[in-house]
Design goal:
about 220 residues; single chain; Type 1 dockerin domain; four-stranded antiparallel sheet; mainly beta; six-stranded antiparallel sheet; Immunoglobulin-like; 3 helices; binds calcium ion; disordered N terminus
């Protein structure tokens, strides 16, 4: 029987989620959550899970992996996470996770934050992160079928005039292009902070939220 949770209409076992918009060359946090319907799990029996988080190592650098809330709160869970390198010692764009967990009976669903990955962004725009090579084994040694999600990570740069600080000049630069889309003569790529092809409130808000930030 497949084990996956039906959360907000989508069936997911593992979910990766961005915490907040990142500054250019700044930090970005990625949450990795696991969700299981307890109907499909035997309470207090152990399950093992392995998976990989794949990212583009030209666009993102993995800085560190922090244990999630669930794993620091209970002995039921152990987690191992490793940022893999290729044979030249360069980051390969893969983080491998392995952990064990016990089936629980809480509100019909076992859920928790497995880990948080801190990335440094190397480029502006959108980067895609995938969960791959997932395998789940139960206490009888059987493999269980599972589903995963992928996430688009937005790496934004609110210093649109490129002078090392986010302030009213960036606001003015962005405001000039406000309302423009890609076909508009007022469209300027730098003003499109999240690189979605239009300049709107989202872009202006990135600037306001990061006011006085220095690179
Ligand atoms: Ca600036
Ligand atoms: Ca935009």
């Amino acid at each position: 029987m497949p084990i996956y949770a039906d959360v907000a209409g989508t069936k997911k076992l593992l979910q990766v989620k961005q915490d907040s918009i990142a500054l250019n060359k700044g930090e970005i946090n990625l949450n990795i959550n696991a969700m299981f319907p307890t109907d499909d799990l035997d309470v207090d029996k152990l399950y093992g899970i392995e998976f990989e988080v794949k990212y583009n190592s030209e666009e993102l650098s993995a800085k560190e992996v922090l244990k999630g809330d669930v794993f620091t709160a209970t002995n039921s869970y152990k987690v191992k996470a490793e940022i893999l390198k290729d044979n030249t010692g360069k980051e390969s764009g893969v983080i491998k996770f392995a952990y064990a967990f016990k089936g629980r009976d809480i509100n019909g669903i076992s859920t928790g934050n497995v880990a948080k990955v801190k990335f440094i962004t190397n480029k502006m725009g959108v980067s895609i992160i995938n969960v791959d090579n997932l395998s789940v084994g139960n206490y009888l040694g059987n493999e269980l079928a599972v589903k995963v999600s992928k996430e688009n990570i937005i790496t934004a740069n609110p210093d649109v005039n490129n002078d090392g600080v986010v302030n009213i000049k960036d606001y003015a630069y962005c405001a000039y292009s406000f309302g423009a889309d890609k076909n508009d003569i007022r469209y300027r790529l730098n003003a499109d902070v999240n690189r979605d092809g239009k300049i709107d409130d989202i872009d202006v808000n990135y600037i306001i939220e990061n006011f006085n930030y220095k690179f």
